[in-house]
Amino acid sequence: MMQAGAIHAATLCLDAHVDIHWPDPPDPLAETTMRVDFPKMARGGLDAAIFIAYLPQGRRDEAGHAAAAERAEAMLRHIRARADGTRRRFCATAAELEACFAAGAQAVMSAVENGYAMGRDLGAPARWRALGACYLTLTHDGHNDLADSARPRAPLGDAAEEHGGLSPLGRDAIGALNRAGLLVDVSHVSKRGMMQAAEVSRTPVVATHTACRALADHPRCIDDEQLDVLRAVGGLAQVTAVPAFLKRVPEGQKNPSSVEDMADHVDHAVGRIGIEHVGLSSDFDGGGGVEGWQDASETGGLSAALLRRGYGARELGLLWSGNFLRLLRRAETAAG
């Protein structure tokens, strides 16, 4: 246990997908009812978090897109303002994140979830990048103008498929993301759309919060063919702490998923595509939380579970942050 704690403390632990409450987010400097705040991060050795400007899918008209764009940019500005520049630093690049960790400060990062916020504005990725965002999740639940969702929403009038994967606008949007230096997140995207995005993007794509469909048949998980595509393009699948993605149970029963189930999914993905293409995230405050990692204060519990499986310090570093940083550097180099 002492050795596990030391390895965890020496590892740059980045949670690549953390939702925030909006509107009226609580003060993260204080202990809150949220699963992630700065005191919990400090207790759990969670060094960095990518906080999410999340947009629920809504009406795809001019007013709906304008409201989504306004909300996304307001959230990005709020996330950036969480950092004070000393004890908590806002980081937009891989180098800034590594320097923050070396200085012993907590790192705040940001991303946008749901390309609905773009509308048809291909200039949006450059504005988001200027505000510090590091990736865009192309869809959420429900199709948007960029791509089909893995979970269509009947109340929005969604058919099983609308675009056959990516729309022409979606392909152009990926080009805009590449030019701006944002990573393309294929979480929530239909299988066909995800595989098309991997082919179209000039930089490796990432599924920031997913799991392995071979172990849990859920539409938000990715199957072995999709894992193989991620390996082929140098991409990344990040196993997340959403119980329904890890273990399927009869409706109405409590899902007992734990850090051991997360480790099972990591084992499967690593066995299939290699340690260099697998990562970790929580989706805290967006549905994530399992036994052994219920909030940021318990982050060491996941590290301990992985170390018990035989992963060492190098592998733990790749899973927590090394692989994501590699992709972030690729996006930064390809920008412009």
Structural overview:
The protein has 336 residues and is of the alpha/beta class. It has a single domain (2-334), classed as TIM Barrel (Alpha-Beta Barrel). The protein has twelve helices and nine strands. It has helices spanning 2-10, 38-44, 62-81, 94-102, 124-130, 168-180, 191-200, 224-233, 243-246, 259-273, 299-308, 313-334, and strands spanning 14-19, 48-54, 88-90, 106-113, 133-137, 183-185, 206-210, 236-240, 278-281. The strands form two sheets. Strands 1, 2, 3, 4, 5 and 6 form a six-stranded parallel beta sheet that branches. A three-stranded parallel beta sheet has the order 7-8-9. Helix 4 links the parallel strand 3 and strand 4 (106-113). The longest helix is centred in the last third of the chain and has 22 residues, at 313-334. The radius of gyration is 18 Å and the shape is globular. 54% of the residues are buried.
